Amino acid sequence: MPRKLEPLEGNMLIAQSGGPTIVINQSLVGAIQEAKHHGAIHKIFGALHGIQGILDEEFINLGRESDRTLEDVAITPSSMLGSVRKKPTPEDCKQIFEVLRKYDVRYFFYIGGNDSAETTHIINQQARANRYQFRCFHICKTIDNDLRENDHTPGFGSGARFVASAFMGDNLDNRALLGVKINVVMGRHAGFLTAASALARVYPDDGPHLIYLPERAFSIPRFIADAKRVVAEHGRCVIAVSEGIADSKGTPIVSKFAAGKEVDSHGNIQLSGTGALGDLLAAEIRRRTKIKRVRADTFGYLQRSFAGVYSEVDAREAREVGRMAVRFAVREWADGSVAIKRKPGRTYQAYYVRVALSKVAKETRHMPDAYINAAGNYVTQAFIDYARPLTGPLPKIGRFKGYPVKKQ
Amino acid sequence: MPRKLEPLEGNMLIAQSGGPTIVINQSLVGAIQEAKHHGAIHKIFGALHGIQGILDEEFINLGRESDRTLEDVAITPSSMLGSVRKKPTPEDCKQIFEVLRKYDVRYFFYIGGNDSAETTHIINQQARANRYQFRCFHICKTIDNDLRENDHTPGFGSGARFVASAFMGDNLDNRALLGVKINVVMGRHAGFLTAASALARVYPDDGPHLIYLPERAFSIPRFIADAKRVVAEHGRCVIAVSEGIADSKGTPIVSKFAAGKEVDSHGNIQLSGTGALGDLLAAEIRRRTKIKRVRADTFGYLQRSFAGVYSEVDAREAREVGRMAVRFAVREWADGSVAIKRKPGRTYQAYYVRVALSKVAKETRHMPDAYINAAGNYVTQAFIDYARPLTGPLPKIGRFKGYPVKKQ
Questions:
Q1: Could you tell me which chain B residue has the CA closest to the CA of A76?
Q2: N or C, fewer C-beta in 10 Å, chain B?
Q3: Which residues in chain A touch residue B113, judged by CB atoms under 8 angstroms apart?
Q4: Cβ neighbours of residue B44 under 8 Å, at least 6 residues apart?
Q5: Residues B119 and B85 sit within 8 Å (Cβ to Cβ)
Q6: A157-208 pLDDT, tens per residue?
Q7: Sheet with strand A335-342: strands edge to edge
């Protein structure tokens, strides 16, 4: 039951954090546009590079941007205010709070994933401890789709569309030149984006033929056996692998072979921006089988920011999540995160709710068991049904009937 | 001056070879559709996996495919008949000729790059030596854009569109999270596709900031110095690198660091399908500078087959090249390759000519000097003017005006 709050008079500050997505500016623009409708919100500041921009007082005045500029920014990939990967220290929190007070910021919005929700939560607690009148919202985004409380997150539908489109083409590339093709997809702890590769399958013999997710322990001997079996059946094999696959002890496969990896202040090791995992897996297949042509690609940063490839559903929802955060903050809740839910039924329909910050902060959501097959090397129809409405209609793929010619 | 030939009665055989492109089936369908209009051409066979399918007599009857199927196949990425990387031996040539005679093939079309033109040339010489009445055409394709006699080749415009779109998004990703980003682009000997990254630049400070091509000797110390200079100026750096970059002695940079690479029967070493070069260059920057965040992506096979991202100009021209090959073969020339030329003038307009097979076979075309800057680390405006009409309009990129907020 939403509380009915009196609007609080003061300025608004908004910032973006974590990995960019292609629709993250839709949420930013949605929040700005909505804020302009509320007289209680005076100035609209944007902090550059997330909380770093708050600490450095690097603000721009977003309230002065024209509607046309806002619409142009909305369709532009990657965090327009700049991003950061930084967990605030207790010292940072004090300083951030001082800045908020100094600029009379009464509305704070932080667009990001679970690490950013945690940051929002910490800043909110600091303000509460100081009895500062303050509305504080996290606005969800992440192509990984791993935020708790959400049916799915803004950015995922577009990322899934990119991955599915890539596999559609790459499956045909592999069908033309044969051999084994491994594609490494983003996803540290959650396999949703890698699983979206299954949406590429149009004909029953299409790839991906195997999908490996961080939710299941990865075993190289099983991986080799699976690939050999598929090659024996189809004469070729297309494989989707999450960058975050780990062994039965939880050790990431890539970290077994790469010493001294980078770690950010949230404790995450660097997985993207390197082709190491794909090259390693390709080398294992070459070493342990007689399969001649083995290739690996790592989709890398393209899957979160490729210009022009986005899901219209995703873009619309990302805009709405930004709008809803401001609406909630002005009239209903002092703090929270905006979550996307899905109405039951055969026709896809989303709606938006406020959830407590503590419920989305820090911990991540994983693929439900019902979305993963028993062998742990593919997805189920339930996952396909879940993901299909989120990407928008995918490109059409044709095929010859292939009328045979009798050998002479 | 075209000769006027009498139409030759008999069957047609068409096949695809080399690296797939997203518009290679446009050429295939163009040739099939055109052939249906000529009574002299009886059956239309498609050989599976290029000359391998001729050797194995693996044919399908393309004349029976419906118009709807043909149109669906035309917009589908990657060689629908399958491809091969195989240079025929003298023994193969004899056998191919026997198959052509056995199936009364009087029209032969081979869609591919310069290696495929060479194969077409060899098969043609075999037929001539046997005084076999035969029309033999190469139909150009290659995302590398490295065919002699051509202003540009089918597949390049779409590949360039992919690369430019990727850099548009990735430049914004780098602008949000800063550091150095290296992207490795296809291009063994010719830098056209890597150069197309420059089309991504909308604002003067946009990346790519540096572009390294196979046409200029690559030096790691110069590369490091360039990157440091750009980071000092912009606080970040986006770099495009051709997979085929080589040192002053012509040794590919990737081969210096990777022993025992695969070699195909045309003598080409494997460059794509591995992240080795990008990882190597990123490691060099990390080792030799104090720049903290360094990432590398290798675009890999996505740039030639990604479903849904293609240039309409490119698709139209690819269709036309297929049609023209059949028209030339029926009435004008016994053999040749269809080349795309550009009419002089400010408005882009292409036209099609027949050139001798020997003129496009084997050797490749490089970026003209006028397209490369003096320092050898970027392209010129002349290249931008050349490439711009080939990709179709690129996605719109917005930016805030960025009205400053005074620090308090």
A1: B397
A2: N
A3: none
A4: B11, B12, B14, B32, B35, B36, B61, B62, B63
A5: no
A6: 999 999 999 999 999 999 999 999 999 999 989 999 999 999 999 999 999 9
A7: A59-61, A41-47, A10-16, A105-112, A135-140, A335-342, A350-355
Q: If you average pLDDT over residues B293-305, what whole number do you get? A: 94
Residue B104 falls in the annotated catalytic set: no
CA quadruple B203, A72, A339, A265: dihedral, nearest 10:
10
Q: CA-CA distance, A17 to A78, in Å (whole number)?
A: 11
- A167 touches B301 (CB < 8 A): no
CB atoms within 10 A of CB A276: 23
| pLDDT tens digits, one per residue of B334-361 | 999 999 999 999 899 999 999 999 999 8
Contact B296 A279 (CB under 8 A): no
Which listed residue (B92, B104, B115, B144) is catalytic? Answer: B144
A98: contact with B, CB 8 A cutoff: no
**Contact call for B177 and A85, based on CB within 8 A:** yes
CB distance A165–B279 less than 8 Å?
Answer: no
Q: Determine what percent of chain A is predicted with pLDDT higher than 90.
A: 88
Disruptive mutation site among A28, A161, A177, A234 for chain B (greatest number of B CBs within 10 Å)? A177
Task: Write down the ipTM of this complex.
Answer: 0.95
- With H, G, I as helix, E, B as strand and everything else as coil, classify residue B404: strand
The pair of structure tokens assigned to B55 is 């050797």
Confidence band of B65 (pLDDT split at 50, 70, 90):
very high
Identify any residues that bridge with A298 across adjacent strands, giving them in sequence order. Answer: A184
Lowest mean pLDDT: which of A52-61, B83-92, B174-183? B83-92
Residue B341: closest CA among B352, B327, B326, B333: B352
CA distances from B22 to A159, A190, A294 (A): 21, 31, 21
A76/B contact by beta carbon, under 8 A:
yes
What's the gap in Å between the CA of A345 and the closest CA on chain B?
30
